[in-house]
């Protein structure tokens, strides 16, 4: 009787495993190698995962998976169900790799990460796929670190990260050295160069346009330019949108006149003064003052109001620490930006103030004010979320990319100097028409 029971159970398990394998071919609505498109299979089938054999605490085999699914569903433990599905998708991805079907494997890995974005096994294995099959060592390194943040004793992730970390750091430094070279060429252009004057003026307008645009301001670039040049209101636009532009204009002028090349420490009072200028036309009563109420920023809960002053004192110490001064200026500026928005010391204007602080640091190091495009708003915020999760390097790389794109705009403004850079990122400029040569040429000569 007992042997017959186990025989029937084994048969049922085998049947379920075959069903899972067959259904794998229909996962995620992707194209097979012959180009035939197949639809998603039902979610009910995906729960029959075949999990690794080396962990006795996990469910073994298709029938046990079904029992585990039933038990978990009754408990309402959605995260555990997602882990089960993710690990099943992971195993199917491995099978696709063995069959040489890399694109199918990639979609299965992505599906597994979407189901269980915090599972260290899933993160580590997807990182290995990206490193070896997709040749994306930077993202692989990020996933290894993310796995270690979730599970510090994960041996495979630790071994993988130990192998690639130095290589990724070398790649990051190479990019920063390239940016330094472009900065030096821009710095060598005579201030009297007419094209440089036009580029600086255009960059000023664009910086304000994109910075307020990230916060939701609907003014166009030409409208922003008109307000700054004429101080005449734009019909159909709110007073608040006008005041945001005027506030940022005042803050940039304050940086240029008082903070750039200043000797001594960066003080909390400097940051408060920047914030006062930013909100000077929008909300004068809040400008230059720390918030006194709790705020919420998406999934991030900033510190309580009572913690702001101690944290800002720590931030001031970090800004002026000798170790911090040894960081590359782009890294220094990006981390300073992140730290300030993480503390979120103000009720409003945190992002604008953080970007101004970042640019003040960059300008002191010889860089022009960096433009973060409003088109990159979602990516910008996602990089901040990634930093909140424990890896700030993607955000630093994003700021480095914006810095290089801004330098390229200056170099493209004059063919005499752009020829010295053989690898100008013309694709970046093409993606953002507002930074085109035509826009620069339309700016009238400086008075």
UniProtKB/TrEMBL annotation:
UniProt xrefs under SUPFAM superfamilies: Fic-like, TPR-like
MF-aspect GO terms: nucleotidyltransferase activity
TPR repeat residues: 86-119
InterPro entries tied to this protein: Fido, Fido-like_dom_sf, Fido_containing, TPR-like_helical_dom_sf, TPR_rpt
Compartments (UniProt record): Membrane
EC number, as in UniProt: 2.7.7.108
Pfam families the UniProt entry points to: Fic
Catalytic activity: L-tyrosyl-[protein] + ATP = O-(5'-adenylyl)-L-tyrosyl-[protein] + diphosphate; 3-O-(5'-adenylyl)-L-threonyl-[protein] + H2O = L-threonyl-[protein] + AMP + H(+); L-threonyl-[protein] + ATP = 3-O-(5'-adenylyl)-L-threonyl-[protein] + diphosphate
Location (main, coarse): membrane
Record's keyword terms, sorted: ATP-binding, Hydrolase, Membrane, Nucleotide-binding, Nucleotidyltransferase, Repeat, TPR repeat, Transferase, Transmembrane, Transmembrane helix
Family, as annotated: Belongs to the fic family.
Protein name as annotated: Protein adenylyltransferase Fic
Originating species: Nesidiocoris tenuis
